[in-house]
Structures are given as structure tokens and as C-alpha cells.
Amino acid sequence: MKNMQSNETLALEVRDLKKYFPIKKGVTQHTVGHVRAVDGVSFSIPHGKTFGLVGESGCGKTTIGRTILRLIDPTEGSAIIDGVDVFKLKKKQLRKIRPKFQMIFQDPFSSLDPRMSVGAIIGEAVREHNIVPRSEHNAYILKVMKQCGLRSFQVDRYPHEFSGGQRQRICIARALALNPQLIIADEPVSALDVSIQAQVINLMKDLQEELGISYLFISHDLSVVEYISDYVGVMYLGSLVEMGSKKALFKEPLHPYTRALLSAVPVPNPEVKMNRIILEGDVPSPANPPSGCKFHTRCRQCMEVCKNFEPKENWVSEDHYVKCHLYDANIAETADAALDTKSE
Amino acid sequence: MSDKKRAGELRAVKKENLRHYRELKKKNKRKISESEYLTQMRDDNNLIEIDDLHTFFYTDVGTVHAVDGVSFDIPRGKTVGVVGESGCGKSVTSLSLMRILQEPQGQITGGQIRFNRQKTGQPLDLTKAPVKLMEAIRGGEISMIFQEPMTALNPVFTIGRQLDEVTKLHNKSITKKKDIMRRSIEMLELVGIANAMGVYKMYPHELSGGMRQRTIIAMALACDPQLIIADEPTTALDVTIQAQILDLLRNLKDKLNASIMFITHDLGVVAEMADYVVVMYAGRIVEQGTAKDIFLNPAHPYTIGLMKSRPNMLEEGERLYSIPGNVPNPINLPNYCYFRNRCEKRKDVCAGEYPCLLSLSPTHKVACHLYNGREE
Lengths: 344, 376
Prior knowledge:
Chain A has 344 residues and is an alpha/beta fold. Chain A has helices spanning 61-68, 91-97, 118-128, 137-147, 164-176, 194-211, 222-228, 246-251, 256-263, 304-308, 331-343; strands at 10-25, 30-46, 50-54, 76-81, 84-85, 101-104, 182-186, 214-219, 231-236, 239-245, 314-317, 320-322. Chain A is globular and about 70 Å long. The relative contact order of chain A is 0.13. Chain B is an alpha/beta fold. In chain B, 36% of the residues lie in helices and 20% in strands. Chain B contains 13 helices and twelve strands. Chain B has helices spanning 3-29, 34-37, 90-98, 131-137, 149-152, 159-170, 177-190, 196-200, 209-221, 239-256, 267-273, 291-296, 301-308, and strands spanning 46-59, 62-75, 79-83, 106-115, 124-125, 142-145, 227-231, 259-264, 276-281, 284-290, 358-359, 365-366. Chain B starts with a helix and ends in a 10-residue tail after the last strand. The interface between A and B is large, with 39 and 42 residues.
């Protein structure tokens, strides 16, 4: 992943994405500060692969998904889909490219219009973007529904007649109908029961194999992310602290935060006694993040250098990096160099 | 079915419901003598014995059998985990125990909940106890931790005021304002809040999710309850905070010698917390036993399916197992095994009547026809 494959093999490339939300105060609503929701995140997703984004609530993972889609405007950075920087597009151009990336939302109960039938929900965007000729419109919707495990007689039904798992299928069908190359799935299964979760995850995997879609899979559930992802990025307070292939990251988690996250997942076996790392306290406020390494306030292996200097990416292998001073072979040098520049 | 016929049916349902509502009203007005609700425990080591509990909801579209003949015990100082998908009746069981069902639609229609009351030494039946007595028990001897910490706290009062209220109501031995406050701060310190004095003066919106859940736990523990009902206490929290809260609950249980009824849909959490596990499906118990019984030797096809459908971090599988179909409609439940239509191991007997609970071992029980022949 380091010297990534050429741009053509990438479904999405995000470079140095930043999103600051202003904090406004007073009668004049002047800006008094910024919440750094996303603070310099870069990653890329190859075609037909899944990138899992994990982290606690409030770490900015949903904001990343929404900025890539331009649902909210980014502060800085670029997101390249098909050689085009999405962030630089004008409204009309953006509309043209929108079918290429679609979203599945977390809550299937509020993301479907209760007054539209399933056929209308799935068909609306198809008609707008002229995906198929008008005469084939109906047949196309039925085909997509079938792909997503919905039956043809359900085309006239309304969302309230469906259970949570089936609604999520409708959401997937709506996204899929536009032949996207990338689907951003924001916690698609966390509102569902365990047995239904498995059905939806299997459907997403099958569709990926069949159609070669890429997913940006945002979730806080580590076991689901491990199951579906090829690459995983761990976020903390707006930046990626560790990224790598699934195998590397889950077999050998390096960052103290990743280790704590993994050890906190309960295992359904009463005989397994896990060596749990319990993190003290809460996530600091992103409006006023700690200096140096953002994790140092909760880190057990915190060193003096962590409090003052932000760690850089340390590539431990071809496809695995960690932002932590523990893995920086020349901490002393970096610290000295940084001190020098400061004193100058 | 024609619309006319359907409308007539719905009218009949409404009429029948009204009759039930009136009956309940009458029952609530009546004075209840002590002899009616005092009972004997089957085993003195049990804190709670739920016996054949039936809780129905009389809705406009039909009667929902939310809890249909559930029996299990909660021994002293132990944790009982209740697992199941949404709508299986696990929360309604706990609401019945506290008698805080949405009346008059929700009613306990049968069965007993025997509570081994330590305060008086006399066991009593919670389903029949008068409302005044229930008010004393609720929050004092049996307390509850809810799923969503933000909705469980009142946003317009400070944490301190809400904590004081519990002590004021249930602990009559403390009367001075200063002592009540000291007790509240003690409780906040007990649940691991470092800045107890500061939090005492804060409003709920100033706290993070984990801190809110801690204050809720402090509130639940303020009167040294014998039973803590935790209804999905960690579902709204992140894994790292969940680990903190579970650790806290485990330590406090030992410290206070209380029992916990732990309701959740997360099998991993149950495995960590519970001594005994009850698996529910569509209002009935399908399997119960010790945590080891359930997790190492699951017997019911539903329990096995639940375990398999969880992506496991320790093993690598090709495809996730998923239970086909959906939970049956709770209004028109079939008269055969509720799980039959989703079950992969169904046999001809399964079309017959609902299977009763069979004992596989002294602690392990399962409601499935598959094990009928193997009964000792």
C-alpha cells in the first residue's frame, strides 16, 4: 500500500483530508475555535476491495464518509475517484459523477421515505441519471431487487411493511441500482439483530464478488470489520493511528490504542480469559485535542516524547503503518531535530 | 378476507380489550390483604423465582403474548444473563418484575414472581403486591439500569439532585441534607468518577456516555439493592467504555453481594458476565443453563444459529452462517414450535405441539423435540 499501485487500480484515493467545524459563539456568531473532526487522513481503496474504518464514536469516521460524498464540504485535501478530484467539482459535474459512489446509511428506519414504494425508492435515481432506457426501467428495478434478495411482488410495498434487515436490503438495492464502483457503508449493520446482521453482511460480500464493487465500511464493531475488510484503518480523534491489511493489523496490532480496542471485544466463550487492557477515562474533546500524540493522555506506554511531538507514520511492512513513537527507531533524533527547529 | 369482515374483527378485539382494561382498573382499586401476596420460596438460596410468568399486551390489532410461560431463578449473589433478539420478550420480563409495564395495555395475566425480601424476611409475590409496597421496593431493593443513559436522566436537574432523590425516598435513616449529599458523593466515587464533587453539580448533557452510565449505576446502587436489573447497559457505548462498565459492574456486585439480571443481545457480553444464561425466543425460553452449558454445549438450533452467525475474531471462516427467515409475528403465533420455520433440523414431530423444557443435565434445559428421545 505504500507505493501504491498506479491510479487506475484504485477505486478511491483520499489525500490529507481535513474537515474542521467552526464553533460559533455570541450574538454575532463569531468563530471562536474549530472542532477538528478529521485532521489529515490519507488512504486508498483498490478496486473490488473493502476498506474498514474503525474507531470510537466521535472520532470522525462518519465525517470522512460524508465529506467524500460531498454531503458536507471538506476544509482541505482531495478525494480522487476515476482520476477526478471530487472536491474540486462544480455542482453539475458532481451530479454527473455521483452514480459512481453511493452511500448506505446506518438507520434503515429513517433513511427510507415512508411515502414512496420500494420501486419508486430504487427507481428514482435510476430515472434521474438515465441508467437504462425508459422502456427497460421496470425490468431493471426488478433485476436489482432480485440481486438484493427482495421478491418481485414487493415492488409496490412501502417501507413500513418491511423488517429492519429487509429495509437495509432496500437501501443496498437503491445504492446498487446506479452501478457504483464505490459504496460508502456507514454502520450498515449496527441497528440490526445478530442473526439479521449475518444475512446483510453475506449479501454485501456476494455483491462485491459478483460486481467488483469497493466498499468503505465504517463501523465500530471490530469483529464485523475484521470479517468483511481487506484493509483496515484505526481512527482516533480525527486521524488514522494505524493502517494495514486486515491480516497484519488483527494478527499483530501495534499501536497501544488498537491493542486496547481489540482486547475490549467480548468473546462468547466463558472459558477464554482475555488479558484485557482497560483504557482509563474518555476520548478528549476534538475541539481541544492534546498536544503531541493525541492518544498520550490515555496511553499506558506514554513517554516524555509523546507529550510534545506528534508521531509520524512508521512503515513496519509493505502494507502496515503505525503512528506511534514506540516503533520509531530514532526517537531521540526526531525529538532533537524537532527541538532544534523549535528553538530556531 | 374481506375488509368488512376484518373491520368487524378489529371491533371485537377492541371490545375485548376494553373488558380487560376495566378488569385491571377494578383490581387496582381493591385493597389487597397481606395473606394474598405473601408466599414461600421454593429454595431459600434464590433471590427471585419467576414461575410460569405470562405478560400480554392487549393492542388494537390483537393480543401480543410478549412473555408466555417463562420460569427461571436468580440465585443470591449470582448473575443471570437473558439473551435474545429484539422483540423476544427479554425486556418485558424485567419490566414485569419491576411492575412498570405500560398499563392498561400491558398486563401480567398469570404466574408468580417470588421475591425473597431481606428487609422483612418474608418472601412475597411481586405480581400481586399492592402498588404502595411496589413503590418502596422499586429503586430501593430492586433497581434498574437502562439502556440509553441520556433518556434515563432528567436533563433539567443536576446529577446531584437526581441522586439525592433516591436516598431521600428510600433511605429514611438519613435525614440531614448534608448527610444525603455526602452519601451521593460517596456513590459517585464508588463507581469510579474521579471528580465526584464536580459531577455532583453538573447537568447530564455535560457528561460523556460512559460517565452518564456510571451515574445511572450510582443511582441504582444508592440504596444497596438486592437485585440490579441491567437492561442492555452497554449497548449504546463504545467497546472500550463497555469494557470499563462491565468491569465496574463485576466488582460492585462482589462488593455489595447483590444479584444481577443482565439483559442483552450480545453473546460475548453475556459469556463474560453471567453465571447462568437464559435464551429467549418469541416470548418463551428455548434454552437455559449455566454459562458453560450454553456456550460450550449449545443444544437448541436457535442458540447454535446465534453463535454461528457472529463473526468470530478467533477463527477465520469463509461465509457467515445466517438463520434464514425472520422472527414470527407476535400476534398470530403458530401452535407448533415457533422456531420450526427457520430451523434446519426440523423433523415431523416439530409440526406437533410446542415442545416443553427437557432437562439435558441438572442445570441445562432445552425446549426442542430433537432431544425428546434422549431424556433420562
